[in-house]
Design a protein that fits this description.
This protein has 627 residues and is mainly β. Helix content is 4%, strand content 65%.
Length: 627
């Protein structure tokens, strides 16, 4: 049991380029080639204080709790359970200063060739594409322990309190004396090389026909082959030079935070070089058991065939257009990784094959009620494949806790399947103005979530955390949109405009945890809204936006077994750009201008806070060159 607080800042550099080449060798054939490249270089420095060892193992810390200056505060909740919301320890426990840098480089290359042939009756479209996305990242941390002779003799008398908006942490001693900190080691956690490759192709045939209400026939196929590989190495480096100069200091988190001052290394990079001889190469270290369990490869091949008919006719006196069709999809996958051998630190390679297919019909109709209003109706059966990270293999076993625990992915997951209905009304009351209302209903036949169950491995029971397929449920709601350009105003105000939308979602689909009060399905917010005022004139494009999103469940990006709730957020963003020449534009963006904090909590219970983070205001300066 423990707590932590920290401060983070850094840089994010991006380079992007796009090229499109088009060639018309004949009046019937068109060829187009596109190439897109993007690179992000992220470096974030972070200072943290970690407070550990505050648990009460078999009552061993009763005396320390009872004699602390801030004794335990226990509340009884509405369901009759008890929860500790504040407390302290006279002796025992510890804290360390952790000064780290997060390094991450993202690269994306996407290229494709498109060919379109227009015959007298038939149109043939062919595509072939390739993309590769890579992420190279690592978290490098210098850990320093705290050692004060008086505190050791008389007790640190730690205290903590979760009842406020922010976690409060204190101690009887001023822990801001930099001389009391001593470097222990450098930890490189998860030096990750993640690669995601995909090759895809499609071939479509279509022709105009005159057969009753059918005015077009289309059919074709899709093929995609994707491979995602995650390679991780972690290691620890000892201090090589104990006399290395550390330009240490402390700073306060601010008046709104009731926590100790932060310990920082002003010359972090120089300390890494002088005290540890630099950051080792990942090739210099063997993988740990935890690394093997986080090393996985998933290959997925998708094939699809479809047949679609274009529709055009009248229902009574109301004209309509649309399409009706059916798609057959088949997916085959292979997941490879490592499972831990019970009661050892050894691993064995494993591989799992999975496949499934679905038939997905659809109907889409647009009814032209008047010249400026229409109704849209959509009926379909939809499929969403599981994220490849959820299909990873790798069974990890842990017997260090009171209850044996285990974790793994699920290479045999089936996709999300939903029967859905969409009904919308659109009214275009001016050239640059619209008002729309859309109702939606989704009947999920299956969904995916993180579940806990009991398994037996090597004669021992383990509490397993793993993603599984659930029985689904219903998602329903509506969305309202209004936008208008105020071109009727006199200059220069005729460049003003407004965009506003609001959506409401209600669902009975739940995650599987916690078992007594499951979280809502990940990613769904009940209320989402946006209000944007914009101006576009004289080569200037400017806008300011207010964005709101109510609380929602989030799944950890690196660890999908991590489930928690993100509290409601309201942010204000702004941007402005100026077209200097026909080919050159300069842009300035400001994000989270009101410095909205992000809050999160565990177990669908706001009284169990997970974190409070102020990300600050962000400003981005960019340039765009087109040729």
């Amino acid at each position: 049991m423990g707590r932590s607080d920290g401060d983070q800042g850094g840089t994010n550099k991006r380079i992007g380029a796009m090229t499109v080449l088009q060639w018309l060798p004949t009046d019937r054939l068109q060829l187009k080639y596109d190439l897109f490249y993007s690179k992000f270089d992220i470096k974030e420095r972070e200072d943290q204080l970690w407070f550990d060892g505050w648990g009460n193992w078999a009552g061993s810390n009763d005396w320390n709790y009872q004699n602390a200056s801030n004794p335990a505060q226990i509340v009884t909740k509405a369901d009759g359970s008890e929860q500790i919301v504040a407390g302290g320890m006279l002796f025992g426990g510890s804290h360390t200063a952790n000064n780290s840098t997060w390094f991450q480089k993202n690269e994306l290359v996407s290229t494709g060739l498109n060919a379109e042939w227009q015959g007298d009756d038939w149109t043939i479209v062919a595509d072939i594409g390739y993309s590769q996305a890579t992420i190279k990242s690592k978290w490098v941390n210098i850990s320093s322990s705290y050692d004060n002779a008086d505190a050791t003799l008389n007790g640190m008398d730690y205290s903590w309190d979760t009842r406020g908006e922010k976690l409060a942490i204190g101690s009887a001693y001023d822990i801001g004396n930099t001389a009391d900190y001593h470097m222990d080691y450098l930890q490189v956690n998860s030096d990750r090389d993640l690669k995601d490759d995909m090759v895809n192709a499609r071939l479509d045939f279509s022709r105009i026909v005159d057969f009753g209400i059918i005015d077009k026939v289309s059919f074709g196929g899709r093929w995609a082959d994707r491979e995602k590989d995650n390679d991780v190495v972690s290691w620890q480096q000892s201090v090589l030079d104990t006399n290395a100069v550390v330009d240490a200091g402390t700073y306060s988190m601010g008046s709104g935070y009731n926590v100790p001052v932060m310990y920082t290394m002003k010359n972090w990079s120089q300390v890494v070089d002088s005290a540890f001889g630099g950051i080792d190469s990942r090739n210099d270290h063997e993988k740990l058991t935890s690394d093997y369990l986080d090393n996985w490869n998933v290959k997925e091949t998708n094939n699809a065939l479809y047949l679609m008919f274009g529709l055009s006719g009248e229902l009574g006196y109301i004209p309509y257009t649309g399409n009706i069709g059916v798609r057959y999809v088949r997916t085959e996958s292979t997941s490879s990784g490592f499972d831990q051998v019970p009661n050892t630190e050894s691993v064995v390679p494993v591989s799992y094959d999975n496949d499934y297919d679905e038939i997905l019909p659809s109907l889409n109709l647009r009814f032209s009620i008047t010249e400026d209003s229409q109704i849209r109706l959509g009926l379909s059966r939809a499929m969403s494949r599981p994220p490849l990270v959820e299909m990873r293999s790798g069974l990890g076993l842990n017997q260090s806790n009171t209850v044996n625990t285990a974790s793994k992915g699920n290479p045999l997951l089936k996709p999300f399947i939903a029967n859905q209905v969409d009904l919308g009304y659109e009214y275009y009351f001016a050239e640059d103005a619209a008002f729309t209302v859309q109702l939606f209903f989704k009947d999920l036949k299956t969904h995916i979530g993180e579940s806990t169950s009991t398994i037996n491995v090597g004669g021992d029971d383990y509490q397993l955390s793993s993603p599984i397929n659930g029985d689904g449920g219903q998602i329903r709601g509506f969305e309202v949109l209004y936008q208008q350009a105020f071109t009727m105003l006199p200059e220069p105000f005729d460049g003003l405009g407004i965009y506003a939308n609001y959506s409401y979602t209600n669902s009975n689909v739940k995650e599987f945890q916690p078992s007594n009060n499951p979280l809502p399905l990940a990613g769904l917010s009940k209320n989402v809204g946006n209000l944007t005022l914009w101006y576009s004139k004289y080569n200037v494009d400017a806008k300011v936006s207010y964005n709101y999103r109510s609380e929602y469940t989030r799944v950890g990006s690196w660890d999908p077994s991590e489930l928690y709730t993100i509290g409601s957020e309201a942010t204000v963003d702004a941007s402005i750009s100026y077209q200097l020449t026909e080919n050159f534009k300069v842009m300035l963006q400001g994000q989270n201008l009101t410095n909205e904090a992000s809050t999160s909590y565990f177990d669908n219970d706001p009284s169990r806070p997970r974190g409070y983070a102020e990300w600050g205001r962000r400003y981005l300066l960019g340039f765009q060159l087109s040729m």
